[in-house]
Amino acid sequence: MKLPTLNPADPDPLEFAPPLLRLQESMPNPLGRTVLKVLAALLGALVLWALIGRLDIVAVAEGKLVPHSYLKIVQPAESGIVKEILVREGAVVRSGQTLMRMDTLVADADAKSLEAEHRRKRLSLRRIDAELANKPFRVEAGDPAELAREVEAQYRANRAALEAALAEEKSRLVKARHDLSSAEQVRAKLLETLPHYREQDKAFERLAKEGFAGGIMASDKRRERVEKEQELKTQDFIIESARAGILQSEKKLAQIDSDYRRQLHAER
What we know:
It is built from five helices and two strands, in the order ααββααα. It is mostly helical. It has a domain at 113-267: Helix Hairpins (Orthogonal Bundle), CATH 1.10.287. Helix 3 (104-132) runs parallel beside helix 4 and helix 4 runs antiparallel to helix 5. The termini are far apart. The protein has helices at residues 19-25, 30-52, 104-132, 145-210, 215-267, and strands at residues 82-85, 100-102. It has a two-stranded antiparallel ribbon.
């Protein structure tokens, strides 16, 4: 019996089979097996590293190194750059022997900065002493020219600011004293003339009652007397206000000088 030959162009019968049968007859995907092998290899490597590996703990802390041998580890007090090492590890050294040479570039820069700051501070102290003593600031021989000009400019600026504040408050004090003097003069004049207005008021009031003067004239004299009495009270208030202004200006002048000196002491 001769079997029928299949034409390569004929469709695969599994394509028309049910999904379950098609899944059962198809070859499994090799990717899953590869992933499983890789995971198993990684797990084995992890177990092997856990059995034979060692974990080093790195900690950072500040302190002094204490060696367990006779070798002395030299630690500098300040960080720097080593220019030259004159000994080898394990060599025997003597007391006072030079072990290494440091690069002095940074140290020289720091020294110059400290020296400049020292000179600036010294000039500033002289400026403060001159301001506290109300004396001029004088440049001495040997003072750096640039620093001396800077400190002298600061001295002049501080004195100018102080004198401006004092001059402004002194002008208020002079005005308050002038107002007080004027008010006292007006008050003295009112005290001299007020009895005359009171006598006129009483006289015209008596004449009006006796019929020798009109009521309008008596009313005018009464009004003049009342106005002068009110002016006297007003001058009393002006005098009290001027005295309060004088007291306030004097306190303000003392406060300006006190604040100025307190700031100078704080700068020291």
